[in-house]
Amino acid sequence: MEIGEWVNGDQYNGRIVRVANSFVFKEPVFNYSSEFPFLWDEIMIPIKYGSDYRTARELIAHIAEEVVGDYARSAENAWEPISRRYMIEKASIMPAVTMIANQNWIEFTLRYVIDYRVRRSTKDRLFTRILEEIDKSGGRVGIAASTLNIEKLAPLEVRLTRSPASPVGRSP
Asked: Do 28 and 19 touch, CB atoms closer than 8 A?
């Protein structure tokens, strides 16, 4: 069953995909459900400048632990044999909050491990809880939105002319 194309969120779109054996040997095949049934996923939260960024980081980290902490602990146990088998570094499985400042806002990224089957619903729970906590912050933290500041506007002159067909004061 195909996922994606015109449907977002890793949801089925209704098309069944058949893969020829010859294709399997030419291209990599990605499987979410074999040995390590977890994915790393990320969400980005734009926080407006002037917000208490320490509070923002703390509330995002707290919510991550609440929503995906158990997944991370399960994934950590599943990752150990994978890292030994494929000689992969011991990756960080626990949720991580990072921050960058760009020209529009302070961008927090929450990176976390999740069971691939509940990826979309988990994103929904994370965003819902984050917005709830931002609302409770009493204005200390605010979600950013794209805005346009016009610093200087050139003089604007508007002239209205009367058309002979429709004199001012008369109804058509």
From this structure: no
Q: What are phi and psi of 169, to 5 degrees?
A: 95, -15
78-135 per-position pLDDT tens digit: 888 888 887 878 788 899 999 999 999 999 999 999 988 898 999 999 999 999 999 9
pTM, two decimals, is 0.74
Rg (CA), the chain: 26
Whether 156 is covered by a domain: the verdict is no
Domains in the chain, number: 1
Burial 16-32 (b: 16+ CB within 10 A, else e): eeeeeeeeeeeeeeeee
CATH of the domain at 132: 3.30.70.100
